[in-house]
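Repro:
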Amino acid sequence: MFVLMNFGLSLEMRMLFAFAAALLLSLACGGPLIEYLHTKQKQGQPIRTDGPQSHLQTKKGTPTMGGILILGTAIFSILLFANISYHFVWVSVLVLIIYGLTGFVDDYWKVKRQSANAMTAGMKLFIQFLTAAVAASIITAATPRGINTVLSFPYFKDLFINLSWLYVPFAVIVMSGASNGVNLSDGLDGLASGLLIIAFTFFMAVAYFCGFPNAVEHHLLYIPRCSEIGVVCAALIGSCLGFLYFNKPKARVFMGDTGSLSLGAILGAIAVMTKSEVLLAIVGGVFVMETISVIIQVAYFKKTGKRFFRMAPIHHHFEQLGWSEKKVVLSFWMAALLLALVGSLIFI
């Protein structure tokens, strides 16, 4: 299956080819896919009636399930250029497929029923937690003993906490939390895809350096062969960048739960694979902020009957303050870039 290794391609070349293949494929396939989705989704994705009222006009009729484009091109590139004999690679593919299918079913019923709600939250969380538990167990078993249940802290070479049997539940929370964080961030044209490009680029570097014995010099743990996940990240970057071409304002297609749930989950899984869960909280700070804003809004409303933010997730709050959609997206991208720079201090 892993044919290209026989031609002596280096890891760095395979990362480059995975990125290029995913990008070119997504650009080539995006137009026809969008046309097909238009024919099948006459009314497009249903727009939240409790969201910004402007969205009811500007986003009406836009098809969803654009995540199919990202997942299809990324998985193809991963299978073509990554070494799938490595546990972490096929775990990555399975996470993308299972979370992607969960999101696809949710998107399908949303379009079918023309409702913003399809699968119940409990049903989605059950599938997310079960998949994450299986993935986390495999990752933990495939990680060298002595560090497989350790939580490391960036910027401190010798600061570790051994979570023991609590590590797998913790990893499940990381993966499911990342999945829902990205899902909540997918509310404005280009927002989630741009944030993901930044996050995957950072973790591509992390995965690459984790696979070398001198990883400790970068405040990372040495995990043999982990550099192979750099190929996975490269493919995801290329796919997200190609998708962004069609998702930039005014979006021709939405990512949908098909993309956001699966891409968030794989981002969390990569953080678990590289033992960089704390770094994910830093570099993925915008996703964290989006999630916390919803938690605060719900809790505050239940307690007082009033809203803490004008609207949640928080990107809608800024829209309600009068910010244009473009200004919100660019500001959030800038915040993500600054957080990535903070995370990158480990490489200095």
